[in-house]
Each structure stands twice: as C-alpha cells, then as structure tokens.
Amino acid sequence: MELDYLCTGLSDMKPDSWSGHIRFLNKTNPCELEVSARSSTFHIICGHHQYGNYICVPDWGIGTELAGLDDSF
Q: Residue 41: CB partners within 8 Å, gap ≥ 6?
C-alpha cells in the first residue's frame, strides 16, 4: 500500500508546501514503512508490545512509547 500526502509549512518557509510519499513495507506487527519528502526518506517501525505502543526511527537511533492509538487530546 502506498499513500501520497501534502505538507504545508509556515508562511515564511520556502517552499511553503511540498508533496510526500508513504510506502508500507510490512503491515503486520511491527509495521514498517518509509516516509519520503523533500529528498529525504525515513525508515519507521511502529507496533504494539506488552505495555503499549511504540515508534522507532532506526536511521536516527531513536524510539519512544506512544499513547493509545485512539487517544485524542
């Protein structure tokens, strides 16, 4: 599955909007995807574990817990 999206920046950014692309590599747990925009691509891994949800960006060496996916605040 692949998705295209439009990003908009602050009014003083140049360009002030640009397109991006999401490509799902694996849709099971953990979910893996590539997010691309403005000549950059990020490999993202997200999923569920015993105590909740997480997201990792291995290329940057970062990961964190996520709130419940149905949370809105």
A: 34, 35
pTM score above 0.90:
no
Report the distance separating Cα 64 and Cα 33, nearest Å.
Answer: 16
CA dist 54 → 6, 7, 16, 66 (Å): 25, 24, 31, 5
> CA 54, CA 63: separation in Å to the nearest integer?
7
Q: Which residues contact residue 11 at a Cβ distance below 8 angstroms, ignoring those fewer than 6 apart? A: none
Tell me the mean pLDDT per 10 residues along the chain, length 73: 86 81 93 93 93 93 88 75
Tokens of 50: 């015993």
Instruction: Give me the residues paired with residue 69 across strands.
Output: none
